[in-house]
């Protein structure tokens, strides 16, 4: 079980209060109509499959119901940091 | 998509919100209302078990048919916080905190969301006053029908919570006044520590029966007594 720090509640909580929301920082294309099918498909479907530090989106589903980001090691499961949406991670992979 | 037309927004229309008075005017024929645990007949159980309540490890009471208002707004907006205080007579509580006065309580739910609980017959008046006092970007929703409050008290109330939630309910982590929304059994609850040995859980209407069944089971080893809800002053409600 992961023990996750929610940056909104400012407390550590059990993993069962949270849901995983996929890779973080996936920006929606500014003008979707101008995208090629490949660019749009890339935005919708294609994600990294990182070995090591991974920025990911989580939601405190059974708590404050806010989304936030986690930098987590996909090998050791170590959580390096959690930060609010709109903030930048201290670690880049 | 970019070919969606921008709707014409009527500012006056968006400023008006349908606020529903859910109770009949005084003097009119009373309406029948059933709390989420109506079917469990807690009042009848309370009368039958009155003699056992002194020796029970856990005393359970449904604080039923209260007025529940969800308020959303920006806690950093001083005017917002002041207006809420003016109407409720309570400070807008900070993170994981609650505040209570004689007839009203307010629980922090998330950084921009609070739950106000008032007697059932005051929900409309309080909502109206809040709407008059608040300005700018805010929301108030009457969710009274959607949830109920179960209180647990007694020397073993904490033991029951320890069996039911992964959250640490020890004194050092859960002082009186603290409120957390967390996992309770296989559902969720907004758990407040109301006193040394007393706790309150706000649970969803559709999960109230599940929580009640869970609590009967988990309280069995400590002895469970049910108490009548003395605070239900909503006299227009008739449950017969
Ligand atoms: Zn949280």
Model description:
With 93 residues, chain A is mainly beta. Chain A has a single domain (3-84), classed as 2-Layer Sandwich (Folate-binding fold). Chain A is built from one helix and six strands, in the order E-E-E-H-E-E-E. Chain B has a six-stranded mixed sheet with strand order 9-10-11-8-2-12. Chain B has helices at residues 11-15, 42-48, 78-88, 123-133, 157-164, 205-219, and strands at residues 31-32, 58-63, 67-72, 98-100, 105-110, 113-118, 139-142, 147-153, 179-184, 187-195, 198-204, 224-226, 237-238. Chain B is of the alpha+beta class. Mean pLDDT of chain B is 89; it is low at 235-240. In chain B, strand 10 and strand 11 (198-204) form a beta hairpin. The chains are: A mainly beta (93), B alpha+beta (240). Chain A binds chain B through residues 8-11, 13-14, 16-17, 31-33, 62-66, and chain B through 1-2, 95-96, 109-111, 113, 166-167, 180-183, 188. Zinc ion (ZN) binds next to loops of chain A. Zinc ion (ZN) is lined by residues 6, 8-9, 60, 63-64, 66 of chain A.
Provide key terms for this protein.
heterodimer, A: 93 residues, mainly beta, Folate-binding fold, four-stranded antiparallel beta sheet, 1 helix, 6 strands, 35% strand, B: 240 residues, alpha+beta, Gyrase A, domain 2, Alpha-Beta Plaits, disordered C terminus, binds zinc ion
Short précis:
The complex is a heterodimer of chains A (93) and B (240). Chain A is mainly β and 93 residues long.
- What is the fold-level CATH name, i.e. the topology of the largest domain in chain B? Gyrase A, domain 2
The top level CATH class name of chain A: Alpha Beta
- Structural class of the helix and strand makeup of chain A? mainly beta
The first-level CATH class of the largest domain in chain B is given as Alpha Beta
Q: How would you spell out the order of helices and strands of chain B? A: HEHEEHEEEHEEHEEEHEE
Number of domains of chain B: 2
Helix segment tally of chain B: 6
- The CATH architecture of chain A would be 2-Layer Sandwich
Strand elements of chain B, count: 13
Helix content of chain A: under 10%
CATH topology of chain A: Folate-binding fold
Mean pLDDT of chain B: 89
Strand order of the largest sheet of chain A: 3-4-5-6
The most extensive interface between chains reads: A-B, 16 and 15 residues
- Physical arrangement of strands within the biggest beta sheet of chain B: 9-10-11-8-2-12
For the termini of chain B, the CA-CA separation is: 54 Å
Question: Radius of gyration of chain B over alpha carbons?
Answer: 20 Å
Describe the largest sheet of chain B: 6 strands, mixed
- Biggest sheet architecture of chain A: 4 strands, antiparallel
Bound molecules: zinc ion
């Amino acid at each position: 079980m992961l023990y996750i720090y929610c940056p909104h509640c400012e407390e550590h909580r059990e993993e069962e209060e949270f849901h995983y929301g996929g890779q973080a920082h996936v920006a929606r294309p500014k003008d979707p109509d101008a995208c090629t099918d490949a660019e749009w498909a890339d935005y919708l479907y294609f994600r990294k499959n990182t070995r090591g530090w991974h920025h990911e989106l989580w939601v405190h589903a059974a708590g404050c119901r806010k989304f936030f980001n986690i930098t987590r090691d996909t090998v050791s499961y170590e959580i390096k940091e959690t930060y609010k949406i709109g903030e930048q991670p201290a670690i880049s992979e | 998509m970019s070919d969606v037309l921008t709707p014409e927004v009527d500012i006056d229309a968006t400023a008006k919100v349908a606020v529903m008075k859910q109770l009949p005017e005084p003097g009119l024929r009373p309406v029948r209302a059933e709390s989420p645990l109506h079917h469990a007949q807690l009042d009848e159980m309370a009368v039958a078990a009155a003699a056992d309540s002194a020796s029970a490890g856990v005393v359970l009471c449904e604080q039923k048919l209260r007025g529940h208002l969800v308020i959303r707004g920006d806690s950093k907006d001083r005017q917002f916080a002041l207006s809420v205080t003016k109407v409720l007579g309570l400070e807008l509580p900070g993170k994981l905190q609650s505040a209570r006065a004689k007839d009203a309580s307010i629980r922090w739910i998330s950084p921009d969301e609070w739950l106000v609980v008032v007697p059932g017959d005051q929900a409309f008046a309080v909502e109206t006053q809040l709407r008059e006092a608040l300005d700018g970007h805010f929301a108030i929703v009457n969710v009274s029908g959607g949830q109920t409050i179960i209180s647990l008290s007694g020397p073993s109330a904490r033991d029951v919570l320890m069996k039911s939630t992964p959250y640490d309910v020890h004194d050092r982590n859960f002082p009186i006044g603290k409120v957390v929304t967390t996992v309770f059994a296989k559902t969720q609850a907004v758990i407040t520590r109301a006193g040394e040995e007393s706790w309150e859980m706000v649970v969803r209407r559709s999960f109230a029966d599940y929580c009640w069944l869970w609590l009967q089971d988990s309280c069995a080893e400590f002895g469970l007594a049910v108490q009548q809800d003395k605070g239900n002053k909503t006299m227009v409600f008739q449950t017969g």
